[in-house]
Design a protein that fits this description.
Elements lengths: L14 H8 L7 H13 L3 H23 L3 E5 L12 H8 L4 E6 L2 H10 L5 E4 L6 H4 L20 E4 L9 H11 L5 E8 L5 H11 L11 H5 L6 E2 L5 E2 L18 E8 L16
Parallel strand pairs: 1-2, 1-4, 2-3, 4-5
Antiparallel strand pairs: 5-8, 6-8, 7-8
Helix pairs in contact: 1-2, 2-8, 3-4
Length: 283
């Protein structure tokens, strides 16, 4: 378990600690474990879906880097996963492009300290909050000498928002702000928990469990998640359960019944391209 000593109220569960517990790590507090177990009691598939979400983020980000030749990736809300036996986003990206610059952003000082010490695949680990995109895109750390010639905000980037926007009050505003800031050809990898296809009792139980944490979770309808791609061009297969996402349809994970997380990859079209935000193939 993590040792208290940095700026955080350790009596409250954190998103990073709960996620670490789901993924089988050991870097969680008692409060994190309590919240995670409360969710698992309501939704026994929660750990399996968390694993699928983690794998989706790396699979989709590395695909986008390889497919579009993008050399810069902003991983926002990176969590504590250094003790999880799965390839993380930066590892997956470097497997397809060893020269890609992968930057980490988080607003949790514990997460930042861990990532700086243990996740050497990141070009830089910087403080930043998805609710304040200035803290990311105007971060002075982008000008660090280590990044000279590697970060260009006028060129396409891959933005990873894995299991982040369901902790945000206005995710549509985040997506609109990204549209305004990013260069055409940029790609967003996004996943979000949904209430569609899940019983109200389970959604209520999971929501209540997270109320004790730093960030309550918001389960949105599938149609509302699909609408986040307004102004973007959805990459096939569109919005699907994370365990079913692959650009060629070859990845077919198990579909779970007690909790669903949907994923999509969306590309920012150029002036002469059309956007699309149809939901794609969801069950």
């Amino acid at each position: 378990m993590i040792t208290p000593g940095l700026a955080r109220d350790f009596t409250q569960a954190s998103e990073a600690g709960v996620y670490n517990f789901y993924l089988g790590g050991k870097s969680w507090t008692g409060a994190d474990k309590e919240t995670a177990l409360a969710v698992i009691r309501t939704s026994p598939d929660a750990q399996a879906v968390a694993r699928e979400n983690f794998l989706f983020a790396g699979r989709a980000a590395s695909w986008a880097v390889a497919e579009y030749g993008i050399g810069q990736v902003f991983d926002i809300g990176v969590g504590i996963v250094d003790d999880v036996p799965l390839d993380s986003v930066e590892t997956c990206v470097h497997n397809v492009n060893p020269d890609a610059a992968v930057l980490a952003f988080d607003n949790d000082e514990v997460v930042l300290a861990r990532a700086r010490a243990l996740r050497t695949g990141y070009g830089r680990v910087l403080g930043g909050d998805v609710n304040d995109l200035d803290s990311i895109f105007n971060n002075p750390g982008l000008g660090h000498p280590d990044l000279a010639g590697r970060i260009d905000l006028t060129a396409p980037a891959v933005i990873v928002l894995a299991a982040i926007l369901h902790f945000i009050e206005d995710p549509a505003a985040v997506m609109a702000d990204l549209r305004d800031r990013l260069a055409p050809g940029s790609v967003v990898v996004l996943s979000h928990a949904t209430r569609t296809g899940t019983s109200q009792a389970r959604v209520g139980g999971m929501t209540k469990a997270y109320e004790k944490g730093r960030s309550p979770i918001i389960f949105r309808e599938e149609a509302d998640i699909a609408a986040l791609a307004d102004g973007w061009a959805l990459v096939p297969p569109g919005l699907v359960d994370v365990q079913l996402w692959s650009s060629d349809g070859s990845h077919k994970g198990e579909v779970y019944e007690t909790v669903r997380v949907l994923g999509m990859v969306a590309r920012l079209p150029g002036p002469k391209e059309k956007s699309s935000h149809t939901s794609g193939g969801v069950r």
